[in-house]
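Exercise (ungraded).
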Amino acid sequence: MKLPSKIYTFLIFLFLYAPIIVMIVFSFNSTNSTGLMAGFSLRWYAVLFSNKNIMQALYNTLILAVASALIATVIGTAAAVGIDKWKKNLFRSSVMGVTNIPMMTPEIVTGVSMMLLFVFMGRVIGRQGILGFGTILIAHVTFNLPYVILSVLPKLRQTDPHLAEAAQDLGCTPLRSFFKAVLPSISPGIVTGMIMAFTLSLDDFIISYFTTGPGFQTLPIAIFSMTKKRVKPDMYALSTLIFVSILVLLILTNVAQARGENKKKKNI
Amino acid sequence: MEEKIIIDLKNISLSFGEEQILKDLNLYIRDKEFLTLLGPSGCGKTTTLRIIAGFLEPDSGEVIFENKNMNGVPPHKRHVNTIFQRYALFPHLNVYENVAFGLRVKKMPEKEIKTKVNDMLALVNLKGFEKRNVNSLSGGQQQRVAIARALANEPSVLLLDEPLGALDLKLRKDMQAELKSIQERLGITFIYVTHDQEEALSMSDTIVVMDSGVIQQIGTPQDIYNEPKNAFVADFIGESNILDGIMRRDLFVEFSGHRFKCLDSGFEKDELVDVVVRPEDVEVVPAEQGMLKGTVTSITFKGVHFEIIVDIKDYKWMIQSTDYQEVDSEIGLLITPDDIHIMKKSVYSGVFGDYSSFSEEFDELSDVNEEVED
């Protein structure tokens, strides 16, 4: 690479990551000044971990992310298998279109419409304060579904359509043939979909904000409510931790994928 | 050949939407025979195989296995195993586990599985490949794993759906011989689907020639080649010159303006017939000695022989001869009664024409289409 393009690339990355770098640096600040780096300390990490409110929100977020990712993965995989069986025609492409629309819709629209639906349903069954873990879980599963379907479908298309038949031919019932022959070959797609669903659910704010109630606060909502007051550096510490965990997760999936591809290449 | 009938297909019909794939098909398969379903793409041969395997249900008709009606019985309950076109090996399992798959489903004890898998791998010459990933194997080796996997279940009938289609010519020849020898050693029935007539002729006990969902002829390879029933079979199996003829009386036929002695009888007087003369049966002689005279329009060297296209009364004949002939020279043809085969007129009469448009490329193009066929 020539020097000017090196500088250009460096500037781009600096522009992209400067905010995060600044945040990470200030999370280790020993005072709560945002202008002056007084000294290195883990003080704000300690403050963070002793904040019961934040820890509860973190726990809620993780439970929600795991649950919604798992549910979305099961439903989404089943849907992908069904869609894959259809012949390519207008019906199939419209189903795919309908599946993809939620990804394009602005989150605010999804959030408001879901809240309206939940409140309306609550009225219908005569319950006040229906918003809570149940509703936010349904909302998260809903917006995660298309991502799971989209990551499983290509894998299904790459799979030999005769695999399931071969398993049945060797004595498996149709259901068992799916688990023994098809599932193992589409599992990389399923895992990718699940991780995607997990991270999407983890950092969702807008839809969560509309579909949850006072009893169930997720981390992004908790942080947002704190910004109404003065933001303390413990939030920097928290954001740093989230950033690092996502980074690690990303690196792990990339390494796993690269390994899988290498293995394939070696075998060919 | 034993006369026990293992599979009996009775009046099978099947349509996909508007398109009728099989029309009232009747076929019985004897125990321990090597039967080949042969035909061009879209003739219904793979569909027939899938009906036997249980992946498709016929709209009407009966599928009978050893005197039991199998209609509605799902694939996993049938004593047949299939070798798929692209093998359909399980990519997440190694060679050993692929072969053991069916045995594990049956919950066979681990010890027996081991012996059985080892026997099967020995049978297909893949000893020492147990731990290999199936994707790391060559096409021929994958093919062998597929055979071992299917045979490990001890099926009474093995179904093979164009199993050698993806292999190169040399390997295909080797595998043909090997499949035939496996079939003879194990003494099980093979039902083999192919569009390759040479493969069919060299391996089969019985060939079933199909076109447009209808069986055109059933017979031994010799029967099919020497006594084709109609112009379709004559054209599809090997090369043939198919001419319009008139049966003047028993043992006498007239075509290309000449009267020939033949061996066929049982036709009406002056009945219009199709006459088949195989290119390799004709003897080339100097023009004045020939029964028929014609001009050489092209000659191609084929290694074993020359392929000569001769124009006789506007019909382009194909002749195979070991002697070179000059293009535009006039030559004579000698045809003995033994070389002539007479067929009744059928819907295929006059469909195939002569060799004026013959080209190797056409053959290859039709092969490409075959690969796309599902």
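Further reading is listed at the end of the chapter. For now, observe: Chain A touches chain B through 23 residues (CB under 8 Å). Residues 233-267 of chain A form the longest helix (35 residues).
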